[in-house]
């Protein structure tokens, strides 16, 4: 049986803006928490830049998980 629906790459490309945005917010809030012990607070540019870097593998793994769930629901792969 052939795979139906979107490929993992296409899912990752569609979800990357959300993954990078979520990672950027998390980086910023982590820097705020670290400021309680004397760390620097990340600027907007640093938060977005690190969010883009961290968001890439996170989005890829999430897209693989979604593709796996699609395959399981189609019955083409064992759970």
List the helices and strands and how they pair.
Blueprint: H1 8-35, H2 44-74
Report on this structure.
- It is a single chain.
- By secondary structure, the protein is an all-alpha fold.
- It has one domain (8-74).
- It has 2 helices and no strands.
- It has helices at 8-35, 44-74.
- α1 crosses α2 (44-74).
- The mean pLDDT is 92.
Quick tags:
75% helix, mainly alpha, elongated, single chain, 79 residues
Distance between the termini: 16 Å
Strand fraction: under 5%
Q: Which class do the helix and strand fractions yield? A: mainly alpha
Radius of gyration, taken over Cα atoms and rounded to an integer in Å: 17 Å
Task: Count up the domains.
Answer: 1
Main sheet characteristics: none
| Poorly predicted segments | none
Mean pLDDT level:
92
What's the shape?
elongated
Helical residue percent? over 70%
Overall strand count: 0
In short:
With 79 residues, the protein is mainly alpha-helical.
């Amino acid at each position: 049986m052939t795979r139906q629906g979107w490929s993992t790459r296409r899912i990752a490309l569609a979800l990357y803006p959300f993954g990078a945005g979520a990672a950027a917010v998390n980086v910023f809030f982590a820097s705020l928490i670290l400021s309680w012990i004397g760390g620097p607070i990340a600027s907007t540019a640093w938060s977005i830049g690190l969010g883009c870097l961290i968001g890439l593998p996170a989005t890829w793994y999430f897209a693989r998980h979604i593709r796996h769930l699609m395959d399981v629901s189609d019955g083409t792969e064992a759970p």
